[in-house]
Write a structure and sequence with these properties.
This is Succinate dehydrogenase iron-sulfur subunit. With about 250 residues, the protein is of the alpha+beta class. The chain has helices spanning about 1-5, 40-50, 115-125, 145-155, 165, 180-190, 200-205, 220-225, 230-250; strands spanning about 10-15, 25-30, 75-80, 80-85, 100, 110, 115. Helix 6 crosses helix 9 (about 230-250) and helix 7 (about 200-205) crosses helix 9. The radius of gyration is 22 Å and the shape is elongated.
């Protein structure tokens, strides 16, 4: 058994792109199999020995990774047609040949490296933070009710990996929809006792072009989220809050 595993190889088909303005192409690699490999391990093997399946020397595949524990969100890519984290994509659980490609929602920098700036601009738009002066110690903040803290913690697991945007049909180069992640973060920070001070400002941002009205309720986001965040629940809650906010503005309240 051990000898058979040592001789086994795995076929990878990687979608590559030499620069942001060049055309994509595919390149095949045969990776020596080892038990418990993930996609990152395979990419590291290519980096160690950059030779394609035809035996020709090539450049190492570029990708991003950091924590390797599905916490940082850096290693997001499309694996066998599904956007996910490469660090938790185990080779033994994937159908061969294993096809790896960059997420198409974001501009490609090189190979599997993408520019997730669209996500961070969306977070800036909705002010997904708690503004404090920071020049002096404010002491302990107000406490949250345990029932609220539990579901707020689930929302805080977002690692800005971009998988939900890749899965959403309403996020593409023809729209400016901010996507489900930013909407969910509005719910998170509006629930915070201190962050609530800027609640109306965040709701107003959701009501602008590219905001919550861009959601088509496909629900792909909640099915694809690696952290299991209840994104559609957040979108529904923010729909209700923005509707209330709209009526208050009409009534001058």
């Amino acid at each position: 058994m051990a000898e058979a595993a040592a001789k086994r190889s795995i076929k990878f088909i990687v979608t590559r792109q030499d620069s942001s303005d060049s055309k994509p192409y595919t390149e095949e690699f045969q990776i020596p199999y080892r038990p418990n490999m993930n996609v990152i391990t395979a990419l590291m093997e290519i980096q160690r020995n950059p030779v394609n399946a035809e035996g020709g020397s090539t450049s190492a595949v570029c990708w991003e990774s950091n924590c390797l524990e599905e916490v940082c969100g850096a290693c997001s890519m499309v694996i066998n047609g599904k956007p996910r984290q490469a660090c938790t994509a185990l080779v033994d659980h994937l159908e061969e040949p294993i096809r790896v490609a960059p997420m198409s929602t974001f501009p490609v920098v090189r190979d599997l490296v993408i520019d997730r700036g669209r996500m961070f601009k969306a977070l800036k738009k909705v002010k997904a933070w708690i503004p404090i002066d920071g020049t002096y110690d404010l002491g302990p903040g107000p406490r949250m009710a345990e029932s609220k803290r539990q579901w707020a913690y689930e929302l805080s697991k977002c690692m800005t990996c971009g998988v939900c945007l890749e899965a959403c049909p309403n996020v593409n180069d023809k729209t400016d929809f901010i996507g489900p992640a930013a909407i969910s973060q509005v719910r998170l920070f509006n629930a915070h006792p201190t962050g609530e001070m800027n609640k109306e400002e965040r709701l107003d941002a959701l009501m602008t072009d590219g905001g919550i009205e861009g959601c088509g309720n496909s629900q792909n986001c909640v099915r694809s989220c690696p952290k299991g965040i209840p994104l559609t629940t957040s979108i529904g809650a923010m729909n209700a809050d923005t509707t209330k906010r709209l009526f208050k503005k009409w009534l001058g309240m």
